Amino acid sequence: MEKTKNQKEEKEVSNSDVIYTFKFNNELEVNRLGYGTMQLNGAGVWGDSSNRDLDKRVLHSAVESGVNFIDTADAYGPHTNELLVKDAVGAYYDSIVIATKGGLERSGPGRWHVNGKPEYIALAIEGSLKRLDKQRIQLWQLHRVDPRIPIEETLAPVADAVRAGKIQYVGLSEVDIKVIERARKIVPIVSVQNLYNLSERGWEHIVDYTAKNSMAFIPWFPLASGPDKLKDRLAHIANKHNATTSQIALAWLLKRSPNILLIPGTSSLAHLQENMEAVQIKLTDREFEILSK
């Protein structure tokens, strides 16, 4: 029997319409499911973890499983994380993209201090190049904007490094549109890394802004499951797909916008493989809408 106009038909378009790669500046292509290294440190993101050999195996397994975008930072450790990345996946540098960040100093476990002074930023860039053992950083991101320093001054040495061929692309973290547009007058911006997940969507407008401007949006803390009401929805949909709630959360982000790059982090080989399998989940449009409410 033919449906009337008043009868709403549930769309069953699924993640098969999702593109799983993204190109920085329409040139440098990466898989949208990457890996973030923050958890490969000691407590408070301080020093190496208690099992550096396992951390190296996790990184190696990530690349072997198809990850070609790895996000680190000079503040993780500090410095130990970049050295770990070089030791674990340096042999893959020809086929993967390494993103790092600068602009935060550390004084102890769990302690982070913004430093946007141009002289510090210049030293941070040189330090990352040395620790990662790279001639050029493919994506360098300003970890945080220093409210004491005009961003034009902070980014001056970054623009110098781009001109010198030491940085290929530049990104920002935890920024609004005004800051992005000020930064774009100094150096091209290809990515923004802000807090964003199913339950924390204060940066929705930045997701849309970056998509409109062909920039990557890299949500940090992507696996938060949110309040109980959202957890119930997640659990219901996860059961239908024989998946975990974390996998559904990742699948939702992949469907949310084609410019979203995911960097879920883990120090567990089993959890890594669970995250990688999220691309196999085919959310319907209706399921996406239910989770988006």
Automatic annotation (TrEMBL):
CDD domains: AKR_AKR13B1 (cd19088). InterPro entries: AKR (IPR020471), Aldo-Keto_reductase (IPR050791), NAD(P)_OxRdtase_dom_sf (IPR036812), NADP_OxRdtase_dom (IPR023210). GO terms for cellular component: cytoplasm. Residues 32-291 form the NADP-dependent oxidoreductase domain. It comes from the Bacteria. Keywords: Oxidoreductase. This is Aldo/keto reductase. It comes from Pedobacter psychroterrae.
